[in-house]
């Protein structure tokens, strides 16, 4: 089989005839092939155009028609009386989408800078924001534009791909820094937020902002609303050919808080230059009336996309303006735990009338614990222990009761607890006890731990909110729960099971702190027949060998606390004030006094505040803008007048009009007018209201141009000077 | 005959039917271009018709030349074009980029375009003189490989994959029609298929590679080359059976369709005229190609036959690849649609093909038929 290859039958060499025949045959093949391709094309076309027609038509429409979302108007946040704490202000704004800018980016940015008259700082900030953005994310260029500049941008839009000019709404916080921590702020969604919501296109719609912190973030879904939509016919490059139709947006639902806007503003301003927190609540309903933390930031500037100078100014401040001190800072409570400890002692069966001799301290084991009063208080019973804040009394009797009942009581009074409040992050602090110590540090509880804890030192930590809740619970003898969202139902808080005489005893002792021979005589309310009951607290930060706690380096000074309620015999309001490194409780109780005074007599309280503010250099908002201007000047940058604060509110303040929700709006008109005169002179301009009256007094029809009242200058003369 | 008495004989021999088809197709192309320009004769449609007129005259002139002229011109024209390809390559090299044309001042001459009909004529000339016995031998095919290889490698260097493929295809068809053994094609086809991955890897530039990958999976690059295919399919698919109406194509007018007036003109047309318009265009091509094959069949000698088949196939290749491309069946290669796409070079090429076909037609009517 293998031996010989079979000779292949080779065809004869082609001749002219065979080639001609081959040509004819192959021409048929070629023609058929061409016809085949033609049929394939017809089939393909019919498939695309007839069978799949619907699918492609949809795609063609989605190409042609651009569905631009209209950001929904965000629900307002109002106080218990309906006064807006956060609202929307209509404005003209310009945004850009870096991804769509393409090669024209630099040219567009230059044009924006020129037309909008942006300063170099603003341009640097804008470039930073573009750098940080993810490309498809909207970057704000400018908001609050006047119509002329908006129009100037609008006509140049075709030359600036990726730039969006529109009429929109900006979030406006009339009282600015007073509500910064409480409400948080809004901003454009970042990548995580965009992805977390399944890449909802609304989140990257120019002009749309989501809550970034505080209640704005917590109630995001409720406040957001439903976006509207505008259908336009667009070219591939995004140029709008014509508008097709528009669907209006559905605004978000408003959120009504228990907060009293005026009180909130007052409390924030009353803290003045100190670093601290004020919490006020209604002891009957648990309504939180004010939660102020200072220093603060202006949520208006955060919502506009904060500049680098302002941010570093806030971030580098040792008083931590970015930290909400009502919820997220913890302090040793100092002597403010004493009424709670007293409750525990009585529950443990200790007779309040039993007394101990205070000679300036107490020997516990091999250590001598000093009372704050070196000279000693003499014979001290429970009431005196509270109103004179005698440490020795508590050193002595706490050893008798032991730590467990005290730990349990303080926990029931709200320490170490997290409340069902819609805040992102509540620090719940520490109430130490034997079990806790064992678990945490693995050592046995000692007598000296009890001693330390009864005066609110050692491991004990409390937040200002908890301190207020503790005051309310002691005052009412009920498990008062704070709430922030307004509700009409009056809750029925569970009783803590204290005998009424114990409650009365502590109330009386706490009243004596203020109205009797106590430690806070200056805290007496300037209101007839409303007696304040309170407890001072001074918490050491460092040992006495570092600092005496009263003066010297700020961060080594003692914290000052004051918790109180009023009226003492039928409590309605509870309040806690913490002044960080205030040098002792003396820094705290005047604040509490004035804040509670405001609840009963706003005029009187404002009078005191205005006197203080003249010394401090203006309201919190004014000081913050001044500070910003100083920081900007230090950074070598010039700002337009009014920079660093919401232009609307600054303008209102300059006109001498009450800012909505500010403390003044709750005061009588006569008082406010008088203060407007003062404010006018302190802000360094001509009296605005006077200017306005004089210009209306001059006969209007006189056409003769005068340097002071040229037609263009006249309408603004009253506000800009 | 009576007609002869009235109408001159030259006019009678004029290929009336195909001229009318060409006029219809080009006119339709002009209408589509009119719409693509946003409802204006400028800048495409008017020029398109004008060029057609000019090149039709050129084709008529070409059709009057005798076959000896074609035979005589075949090799010199080929050599000149190869030389021009080298010149283009040199210009591109010194200019630091790829260049495909020579600027003559009044027009940009693209030698690779002219090479398409030139290769047809030169190969037809070669096979016409090759003794029949040598057609099936390697000695007979070696010169063909050289004649085809030199311009192909020059064009591929430009790099212009579409034109290279067109030249190779026309060449292959002539070799096939000249009677080369079938197994050659099978073997070459097999080898080419096996070599495809290597060719992809080494012979194609990155941008050509991307076109191929995009063709295989348009979704992989929805904003780049895949975008073109997708937008083209959207245009054709959304046109439906009867189209959106003249001047109503949103894909082309809103600039979603790339190259709406050149490579993707079929999609522009299909969006506004639907499947009906497409069938009309395909019918026109079918008539032209049928005429080309008939002309080849009627040709008096082997040179004419091969030339006619090659010219017809060149037109077919243009049209088929372009339409396959816009419908997503072929990669995006820059091949225009004959008689419809806006562009002078391609119009000139296809009209040279038409002119040559008319010439063969003329020979068939005037010369006696020879066997070989």
UniProtKB/TrEMBL annotation, chain A:
Keyword Protease: yes
Membrane topology: Single-pass membrane protein
Predominant place of localization: membrane
Polar residues bias spans: 662-685
Domain Penicillin-binding protein transpeptidase residue range list: 276-596
Any Pfam family the entry gives: Transpeptidase
Domain Penicillin-binding protein dimerisation: start-end pairs: 70-244
Region span, Disordered: 660-721
Extent of Low complexity compositional bias: 690-699, 709-721
Domain of life, source organism: Bacteria
Subcellular compartments: Cell membrane; Membrane
Keyword field: Carboxypeptidase, Cell inner membrane, Cell membrane, Cell shape, Cell wall biogenesis/degradation, Hydrolase, Membrane, Peptidoglycan synthesis, Protease, Transmembrane, Transmembrane helix
Entry-linked InterPro entries: Beta-lactam/transpept (IPR050515), Beta-lactam/transpept-like (IPR012338), PBP_dimer (IPR005311), PBP_dimer_sf (IPR036138), PCN-bd_Tpept (IPR001460), Penicillin-binding_protein_2 (IPR017790)
Name of protein: Peptidoglycan glycosyltransferase
Organism: Blastomonas marina
Lineage: Bacteria, Pseudomonadati, Pseudomonadota, Alphaproteobacteria, Sphingomonadales
Automatic annotation (TrEMBL), chain B:
Enzyme's top EC category: transferase
Gene name tied to this protein: rodA
Transmembrane portions of the chain: 18-37, 49-66, 72-93, 114-134, 140-157, 164-186, 273-293, 305-333, 339-360
Topological type in the membrane: Multi-pass membrane protein
Pfam family, one: FTSW_RODA_SPOVE
Organism, as annotated: Blastomonas marina
Subcellular location: Cell inner membrane; Membrane
Protein name: Peptidoglycan glycosyltransferase MrdB
EC number: 2.4.99.28
PANTHER family cross-referenced by the UniProt entry: CELL CYCLE PROTEIN (PTHR30474), PEPTIDOGLYCAN GLYCOSYLTRANSFERASE MRDB (PTHR30474:SF1)
Domain of life: Bacteria
Lineage, broadest ranks: Bacteria, Pseudomonadati, Pseudomonadota, Alphaproteobacteria, Sphingomonadales
Keywords: Cell inner membrane, Cell membrane, Cell shape, Cell wall biogenesis/degradation, Glycosyltransferase, Membrane, Peptidoglycan synthesis, Transferase, Transmembrane, Transmembrane helix
Pathway(s) of this molecule: Cell wall biogenesis; peptidoglycan biosynthesis
């Amino acid at each position: 089989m293998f031996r010989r290859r079979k000779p292949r039958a080779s065809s004869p060499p082609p001749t002219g005839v065979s080639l001609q025949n081959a040509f004819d045959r192959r021409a048929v093949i070629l023609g058929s092939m061409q016809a085949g391709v033609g049929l394939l094309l017809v089939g393909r076309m019919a498939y695309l155009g007839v069978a799949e027609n619907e699918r492609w038509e949809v795609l063609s429409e989605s190409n042609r028609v651009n569905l631009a979302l209209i950001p929904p108007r965000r629900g307002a946040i109002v106080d218990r009386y309906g006064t807006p704490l956060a609202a929307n202000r209509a404005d003209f704004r310009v945004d850009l989408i870096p991804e769509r800018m393409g090669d024209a980016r630099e040219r567009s940015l230059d044009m924006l800078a020129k037309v909008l008259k942006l300063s170099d700082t603003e341009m640097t900030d804008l470039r930073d924001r573009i750098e940080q953005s993810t490309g498809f994310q909207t970057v704000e260029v400018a908001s609050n534009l006047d119509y002329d500049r908006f129009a100037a941008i609008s006509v140049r839009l075709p030359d600036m791909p990726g730039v969006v000019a529109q009429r929109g709404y900006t979030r406006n916080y009339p009282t600015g820094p007073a509500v910064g921590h409480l409400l948080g702020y809004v901003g454009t969604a970042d990548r995580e937020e965009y992805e977390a919501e399944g890449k909802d296109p609304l989140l990257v719609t120019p002009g749309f902002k989501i809550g970034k912190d505080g209640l704005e973030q917590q109630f995001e879904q409720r406040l957001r609303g439903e976006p509207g939509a505008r259908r336009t016919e667009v070219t591939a490059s995004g140029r709008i050919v014509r508008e097709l139709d528009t669907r209006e947006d559905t605004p978000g639902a408003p959120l009504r808080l228990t907060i009293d806007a005026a009180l909130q503003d007052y409390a924030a301003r009353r803290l003045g230059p100190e670093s601290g927190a004020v919490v006020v609540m209604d002891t009957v309903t648990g309504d939180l009336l004010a939660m102020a933390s200072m220093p603060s930031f202006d949520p208006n500037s955060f919502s506009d996309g904060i500049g680098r100078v302002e941010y570093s100014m806030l971030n580098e401040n040792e008083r931590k303006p970015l930290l909400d001190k009502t919820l997220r800072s913890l302090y040793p409570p100092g002597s403010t735990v004493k009424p709670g400890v007293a409750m525990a002692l009585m529950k443990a069966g200790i007779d309040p009338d039993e007394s101990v001799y205070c000679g300036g301290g107490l020997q516990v084991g091999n250590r001598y614990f000093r009372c704050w009063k070196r000279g000693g208080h003499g014979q001290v019973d429970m009431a005196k222990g509270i109103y004179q804040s005698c440490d020795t009394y508590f050193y002595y009797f706490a050893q008798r009761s032991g730590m467990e009942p005290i730990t349990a009581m303080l926990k029931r009074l709200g320490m170490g607890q997290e409340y069902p409040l819609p805040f992102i992050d509540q620090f719940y602090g520490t109430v130490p006890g034997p079990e806790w110590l064992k678990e945490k540090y693995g050592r046995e509880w000692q007598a000296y731990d009890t001693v330390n804890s009864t005066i609110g030192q050692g491991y004990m930590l409390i937040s200002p909110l908890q301190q207020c809740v503790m005051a309310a619970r002691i005052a009412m003898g009920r498990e008062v729960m704070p709430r922030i969202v307004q509700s009409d139902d009056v809750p029925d808080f569970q009783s803590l099971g204290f005998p009424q005489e114990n409650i009365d005893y502590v109330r009386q002792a706490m009243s004596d702190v203020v109205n009797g021979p106590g430690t806070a005589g200056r805290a007496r309310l300037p209101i007839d027949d409303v007696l304040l009951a309170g407890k001072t607290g001074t918490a050491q930060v460092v040992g006495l060998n570092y600092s005496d706690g009263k003066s010297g380096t700020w961060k080594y000074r003692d914290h000052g606390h004051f918790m109180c309620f009023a009226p003492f015999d039928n409590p309605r309001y509870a309040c806690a004030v913490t002044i960080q490194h205030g040098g002792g409780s003396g820094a705290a109780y005047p604040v509490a006094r004035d804040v509670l005074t405001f609840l009963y007599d706003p005029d009187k309280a404002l009078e005191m505040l205005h006197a203080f503010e003249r010394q401090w250099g203006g309201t919190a908002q004014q000081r913050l803008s001044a500070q910003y201007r100083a920081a900007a000047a230090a950074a070598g940058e010039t700002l337009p007048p009014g920079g660093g604060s919401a232009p609307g509110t600054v303008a209102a303040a300059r006109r001498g009009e009450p800012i909505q929700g500010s403390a003044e709006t709750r005061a009588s008109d006569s008082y406010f007018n008088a203060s407007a005169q003062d404010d006018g002179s302190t802000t360094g301009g001509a009296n605005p209201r006077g200017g306005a009256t004089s210009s209306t007094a001059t006969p209007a029809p006189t056409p003769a141009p005068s340097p002071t009242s040229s037609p263009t200058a006249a309408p603004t003369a009253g506000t800009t000077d | 005959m009576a007609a002869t008495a009235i109408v001159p004989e030259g006019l009678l021999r004029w290929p009336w039917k195909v001229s009318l088809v060409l006029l219809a197709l080009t006119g339709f192309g002009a209408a589509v271009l009119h719409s693509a320009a946003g409802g204006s004769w400028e800048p495409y449609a008017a020029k398109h018709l004008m060029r057609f007129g000019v090149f039709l005259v050129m084709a008529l002139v070409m059709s009057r030349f005798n076959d000896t002229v074609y035979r005589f011109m075949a090799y010199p024209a080929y050599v000149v074009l190869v030389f021009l390809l080298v010149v283009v390559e040199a210009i591109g090299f010194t200019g630091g980029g790829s260049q495909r044309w020579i600027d003559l001042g009044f027009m940009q001459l693209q030698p690779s375009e002219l090479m398409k009909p030139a290769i047809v004529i030169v190969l037809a000339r070669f096979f016409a003189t090759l003794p029949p016995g040598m057609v099936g031998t390697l000695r007979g095919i070696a010169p063909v490989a050289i004649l085809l290889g030199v311009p192909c490698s020059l064009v591929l260097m430009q790099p212009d994959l579409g034109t290279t493929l067109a030249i190779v295809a026309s060449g292959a068809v002539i070799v096939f029609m000249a009677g080369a053994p079938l197994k050659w094609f099978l073997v070459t086809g097999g080898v080419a298929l096996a070599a495809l991955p290597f060719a992809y890897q080494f012979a194609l530039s990155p941008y050509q590679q991307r076109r191929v990958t995009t063709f295989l999976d348009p979704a992989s690059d929805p904003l780049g080359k895949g975008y073109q295919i997708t937008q083209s399919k959207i245009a054709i698919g959304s046109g439906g059976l009867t189209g959106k109406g003249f001047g109503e194509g949103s894909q082309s007018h809103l600039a979603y369709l790339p190259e709406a007036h050149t490579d993707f003109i079929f999609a522009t047309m299909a969006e506004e005229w639907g499947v009906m318009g497409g069938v009309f265009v395909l019918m026109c091509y079918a008539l032209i190609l049928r005429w080309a094959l008939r002309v080849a069949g009627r040709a008096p000698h082997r040179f004419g036959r091969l030339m006619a088949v090659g010219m017809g196939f060149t037109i077919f290749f243009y049209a088929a690849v372009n339409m396959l491309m816009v419908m997503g069946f072929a990669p995006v290669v820059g091949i225009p649609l004959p008689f419809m796409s806006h562009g002078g070079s391609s119009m000139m090429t296809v009209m040279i093909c038409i002119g040559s076909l008319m010439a063969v037609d003329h020979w068939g009517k005037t010369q006696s038929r020879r066997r070989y």
